[in-house]
């Protein structure tokens, strides 16, 4: 229906806006769960290029019939994002990622599928870029599951909620940063009449914990190194054992 199309394009517009793309050059975007290519139309109109992934052959057939400008890939994003590292300048997804919380097959583990999706997405995105995923979470547990797997995969950022006080217009956008952490954009409609902001669910950014009193990052401190090694272990990488020498400075010469 035209109403669905209208809502879809509004959300695509907002998602692309939240990406904060450079204005002086065309970008290559990934559209996760692109469906019949409605969000892609908006990306094309803005002068950018896109590749869309979707699990539904029927939806992609519609996109082909509509002669969308993006390239299309039939794939289950729960199996990962199969593109080379740093290929995309950004990723958007409209109403798709919450489906990864469902276990459709016995073999499906939602946390594993989410982690596979986020870790491969992280790799496929250029450093300093963003992913903006609009989703319809069923409950706060789903939101937390999705956000936790994104952070585990290395993303920073959090949830931007537009019109949090409206039952109809309330929209959730998971706004994720790759590499350099940006400032989380403000949700629309979050200012109250008296200019105070309504309280929003913010997810902590784990990476700002290690700061010393002057606000400098204590990168390379022992805590920072132990945390990083722990992160690597969780990703299944081989890491040297922790010893009393971990994080200790070497003498200038022997």
Automatic annotation (TrEMBL):
Gene3D superfamilies: Vaccinia Virus protein VP39. Keywords: Cytoplasm, Methyltransferase, Nucleus, S-adenosyl-L-methionine, Transferase. GO terms for cellular component: cytoplasm; nucleolus. It is found in: Cytoplasm; Nucleus. Residues 30-106 form the Methyltransferase type domain. Residues 176-251 form the 18S rRNA (guanine(1575)-N(7))-methyltransferase Bud23 C-terminal domain. GO terms for molecular function: rRNA (guanine) methyltransferase activity. One of its GO terms (biological process) is rRNA (guanine-N7)-methylation. Residues 221-254 are annotated as: Disordered. It catalyses: a guanosine in 18S rRNA + S-adenosyl-L-methionine = an N(7)-methylguanosine in 18S rRNA + S-adenosyl-L-homocysteine. It comes from the Eukaryota. Residues 236-245 have a biased composition (Basic and acidic residues). Belongs to the class I-like SAM-binding methyltransferase superfamily. BUD23/WBSCR22 family. Heterodimer with TRMT112; this heterodimerization is necessary for the metabolic stability and activity of the catalytic subunit BUD23. Interacts with GRIP1. S-adenosyl-L-methionine-dependent methyltransferase that specifically methylates the N(7) position of a guanine in 18S rRNA. Requires the methyltransferase adapter protein TRM112 for full rRNA methyltransferase activity. Involved in the pre-rRNA processing steps leading to small-subunit rRNA production independently of its RNA-modifying catalytic activity. Important for biogenesis end export of the 40S ribosomal subunit independent on its methyltransferase activity. Locus-specific steroid receptor coactivator. This is 18S rRNA (guanine-N(7))-methyltransferase. It comes from Eudyptes sclateri (Erect-crested penguin). The lineage of its organism: Eukaryota, Metazoa, Chordata, Craniata, Vertebrata. The gene is Bud23.
């Amino acid at each position: 229906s035209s109403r669905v199309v209208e809502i879809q394009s509004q959300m695509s517009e907002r998602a692309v806006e939240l990406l904060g793309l450079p204005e002086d050059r065309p970008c290559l975007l990934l559209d996760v769960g692109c469906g019949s290519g409605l969000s892609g139309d908006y990306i094309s109109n803005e002068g950018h290029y896109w590749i869309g992934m979707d699990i539904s052959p029927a939806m992609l057939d519609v996109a082909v019939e509509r002669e969308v400008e993006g390239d299309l890939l039939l794939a289950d994003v729960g199996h990962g994002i199969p593109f080379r590292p740093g290929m995309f300048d950004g990723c958007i997804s409209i109403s798709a990622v919450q489906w990864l919380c469902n276990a459709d097959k016995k073999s499906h583990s939602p946390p594993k599928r989410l982690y596979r999706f986020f870790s491969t997405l992280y790799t496929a995105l250029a450093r300093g870029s963003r992913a903006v995923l609009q989703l319809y979470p069923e409950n706060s547990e789903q939101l937390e599951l999705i956000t936790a797997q994104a952070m585990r995969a290395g993303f920073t950022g959090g949830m931007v909620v537009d019109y949090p006080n409206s039952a109809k217009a309330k929209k959730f956008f998971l706004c994720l940063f790759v590499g350099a952490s940006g400032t989380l954009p403000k949700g629309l409609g979050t200012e109250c009449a008296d200019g105070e902001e309504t309280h929003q669910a913010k997810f902590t950014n784990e990476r700002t914990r290690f700061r010393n009193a002057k606000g400098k990052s204590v990168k390379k401190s022992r805590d920072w190194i132990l945390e990083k090694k722990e992160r690597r272990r969780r990703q299944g990488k081989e890491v040297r054992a922790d010893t009393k020498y971990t994080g200790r400075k070497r003498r200038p010469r022997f």
